[in-house]
Amino acid sequence: MLITQLKSKETITSLVNGKKIFIINCQGCKEVHFPEKEAAEFQKELAADGKVTGTITTDYICNPENMKLRLEKHMSEIKAADLVLVFSCGVGVQTIAEYLEDKTVCAACDSCRLPGFQGVTPLEYDCGQCGECYLNLTGGICPITACSKSLLNGQCGGAKNGKCEVDPNMECGWERIYRRLEKIGRLDALKSPVQIRNYATDDEV
Amino acid sequence: MKITELFERGEFVVSAEVGPPKGIHIEHLLEEAKTYLKGVTAVNVTDNQSSVMRLGSLATCKALKDEGLLPIYQLTCRDRNRIALQSDLLSAAMLGIDNVLALTGDHIKLGDHKGAKPVFDLDSVSLLHTICKLEAGEDLGGNKLVGEPPKFAKGAVVSPCSDSVDSQLAKMERKVRAGAEYFQTQAVYEPEKFIEFMEKAKQFGKPVQLGIVILKSAGMAKFMNDNVAGIHVPQDMIDELKADKEKAKAGITGVEIAARIIKECKPYCQGLHIMALGWESKVPSLLEQAGI
Ligand code: SF4
Ligand code: SF4
């Protein structure tokens, strides 16, 4: 089981920073505790600023087929937005970021681990429930699970022909992140301050 | 002495790398270093290179220093968490070892203890950041150090001929911002690529030492092409090694090739870093042929 928490208001506001946004909520999944009330209140504030092009609330966006069907109906609203803000666990954000590959897709939540049964996360996306979602610095590709060393500050020197030094059948996660950031014009994300993981989060939840 | 002082003086700084043995006898290593690395300013000591367990880098650095050599302490994030890394940095400073090369480290899977836990609590960038914090008198937990803080010359690595060179440059920039003062490169066999890379890396204003590995055979070159990240030995060099097997075996061809690469790249870099991989004895003739 995992728990998603809203990132701090300041963090989200600085991401949004006056941009036009499209909001996606993923709710209803049995394995994830989602902060529905706080999210709704915060989204009201965002809407009051008049920059929200549309909102959908759905379940299981981590299922790509399901997600595509839901998103397609809203494509014009999504296109009109500068940024897609996703309120879901890390897997949901990654699924959407991959599908909307030219859009900046941002995570509004952090995913933390809760003891107990771990939901079966589907398909190729994986969230390590690290407690502080880094997807906004990495173009929606999880550095914790897509990089063999879970590096947070960029590619190591081990990639060859785009493949990871650990496994020639695995794409280097940071190579993917670089390409994605290049595509969405967000290479400046690589200049973010030094990131150091906080392993204490588990206890604080 | 800090290697950065030499760069500041505008010297072309030559360093070479030694790997500690899997055991406690380092007489041979010290003897080789004293005999063959005389013309070299500083000696890098690898830290369980390729994730193969060996004698410690720090202890070897101290032994080299006692012999009058200038060691560079390579420190990787693979085997130690932030507490152990900081503690080892303080130990180094206490022993008078003030040149550190900060590395992420190879993955455990590449080594001889495949079941070990890969740590990577920090990475090369956050390790550089940590060193800066210690230098400012505070640890990563925000606690004050007692007494005078340590001071290091902080080095890092970069892979100029990598097929992901843009991503490598971005990482280099991050290392500079985190405190890297000079760079050593992965082995270079394509001077054009290196020169092109240096054109872009110039903006960071940090000295770069050209990485050199002496080719021992055509087989080694092919192996590196297939397996080692950031290395591509062009076919004409492989042919050159193949042409006269005896000459290659004696190291003559490898040294000739390396000397050519050095001459071509020298105007574009601030130093040289030789990874002899057991061929320390070839270093003097290489330096001579390269005109250093
Ligand atoms: S960075 Fe990765 S592991 Fe951490 S919360 Fe986001 S998706 Fe999950
Ligand atoms: S090669 Fe890429 S995926 Fe593999 S450890 Fe290095 S940065 Fe991570």
Kindly describe this structure.
The complex is a heterodimer of chains A (205) and B (292). With 205 residues, chain A is an alpha/beta fold. Chain A has one domain: Rossmann fold (3-Layer(aba) Sandwich). Chain A is 32% helix and 17% strand. Chain A has eight helices and seven strands, in the order βαββαβααβαββααα. In chain A, the strands form two sheets. Chain A has a four-stranded parallel sheet, with helices on both faces. The longest helix of chain A has 13 residues, at 36-48. The mean pLDDT of chain A is 89. Chain B has 292 residues and is α/β, with parallel strands linked by helices. Chain B has one domain (3-287): TIM Barrel (Alpha-Beta Barrel), CATH 3.20.20.220. In chain B, 41% of the residues lie in helices and 15% in strands. Chain B contains twelve helices and eight strands. Chain B has helices at residues 3-8, 27-36, 57-66, 82-94, 124-135, 165-178, 191-201, 218-227, 235-243, 245-249, 252-265, 283-289, and strands at 13-18, 42-45, 71-76, 99-103, 153-158, 182-187, 208-213, 271-275. Chain B has an eight-stranded parallel β-barrel with strand order 1-2-3-4-5-6-7-8, surrounded by four helices. In chain B, helix 2 (27-36) links the parallel strand 1 (13-18) and strand 2 (42-45). In chain B, helix 5 packs parallel to helix 6, helix 7 (191-201) packs parallel to helix 11 and helix 11 (252-265) crosses helix 12 (283-289). The longest helix of chain B has 14 residues, at 165-178. Chains A and B meet through helix 7 of A and helix 5 and helix 6 of B. Residues 147-149, 151, 155-156, 158-159, 164-166, 172-174 of chain A line the site of one iron/sulfur cluster.
Write the layout of secondary structure elements.
The complex is a heterodimer of chains A (205) and B (292).
Chain A: E1 2-6, H1 9-16, E2 21-26, E3 32-33, H2 36-48, E4 52-58, H3 64-72, H4 75-80, E5 83-87, H5 90-99, E6 104-107, E7 109-113, H6 143-146, H7 173-183, H8 201-204
Chain B: H1 3-8, E1 13-18, H2 27-36, E2 42-45, H3 57-66, E3 71-76, H4 82-94, E4 99-103, H5 124-135, E5 153-158, H6 165-178, E6 182-187, H7 191-201, E7 208-213, H8 218-227, H9 235-243, H10 245-249, H11 252-265, E8 271-275, H12 283-289
Parallel strand pairs in B: 1-2, 1-8, 2-3, 3-4, 4-5, 5-6, 6-7, 7-8
The structure holds iron/sulfur cluster (2 copies).
One iron/sulfur cluster (SF4) binds at residues 147-149, 151, 155-156, 158-159, 164-166, 172-174 of chain A.
